Amino acid sequence: MTSSTDIRPRSYRPHHLVIYLALGTIAFSAAAAFAWVVNVSLKTNQEFLGTRPWTIAEKFHFENYANAWTNADVGAFFGNSVIVSISATVLGVVVSAFAAYPIARIPFRLNGVVLAVFLTGLMVPWMVTFIPLYLTLQDLALLDTRLGLVLVYATYNLPFNIFVLVGFLRTLPRELEEAAAVDGAGPATTFVRVILPLLGPGLASVTIISFLSNWNEFFYALVLIHSPSKMTLPLGLFQLGQAADYGTNWVTLFAGMMITALPVLVVFALLQKQVTKGLTAGALKG
């Protein structure tokens, strides 16, 4: 007779092999594309145009990164992206946390309606909003400004952030508020001193996802920013790509791509466990 604690090997079916092969192919393709960009970014323009695509660079020209940073203004684009992405992420996460708490923890008559209004933002396509948004920012004198882009990004992230944080808050026991109320704490004090310290995984998830979304966003930056000095990295790389189409300076473009991708890869590699923990915890309870 076997005990209930026996560990038996899991049986694998043929479709598991197909899934693993498909995932492995996708992972290999992504890694190969990344390696190709790294290799090209270290070549000279003559090598890039005169050799086969997968030919390894004869000599690694790390000065391509310095040229991209200074001569191609990638450093200025990088600084704009850092300012806009961090500011929009902080603003969006703070507003989302304060909005999600009463929806998830304080019962009131229109609780579900308020949540549905926020979630409607996930279903509205950007094609419907960008013309009114452009005109609104123009009326507020925020067009072609970093502040206008920060407000747009922060608002754009609100629906998803609130959805995740509401799910996470609903997993916390109700006894927390009851104990705080016995000690004489109001809703604001309870949120700041009791609930907020427990929101670490959820806040980490929405913060990282919001930052990555803001860092890589292209369309709103293209529509709302016109001055080269205020362009973010995706928009700056687009300009470099257009310049490369009419010239031969391709290695600078690829070096700029690597400068854009590396911060994102480092952030996600270091904090991916926090993202997974926050999203799965929020999914345990509807």
Characterization of the model:
The structure is a single chain. The chain is mostly helical. 74% of the residues lie in helices and 0% in strands. The chain has helices at residues 14-41, 45-50, 63-70, 74-105, 111-120, 126-139, 146-169, 175-182, 187-198, 200-216, 219-224, 233-245, 250-282. The longest helix is centred in the C-terminal third of the chain and has 33 residues, at 250-282. It holds the Pfam family BPD_transp_1. This is Carbohydrate ABC transporter permease.
In short:
It is built from 13 helices and no strands. The chain has 286 residues and is mainly α. The longest helix has 33 residues, at 250-282.
The helix content is: over 70%
Q: Give the end-to-end Cα distance, rounded to a whole number of Å.
A: 40 Å
Radius of gyration: 24 Å
**What's the total helix number?**
13
Structural class: mainly alpha
- Low-confidence spans: none
**Strand percent estimate:** under 5%
Order of helices and strands: HHHHHHHHHHHHH
Organism: Kribbella yunnanensis
Family: Belongs to the binding-protein-dependent transport system permease family.
Transmembrane segments: 17-38, 77-101, 113-135, 147-169, 190-212, 250-271
Pfam family, one: BPD_transp_1
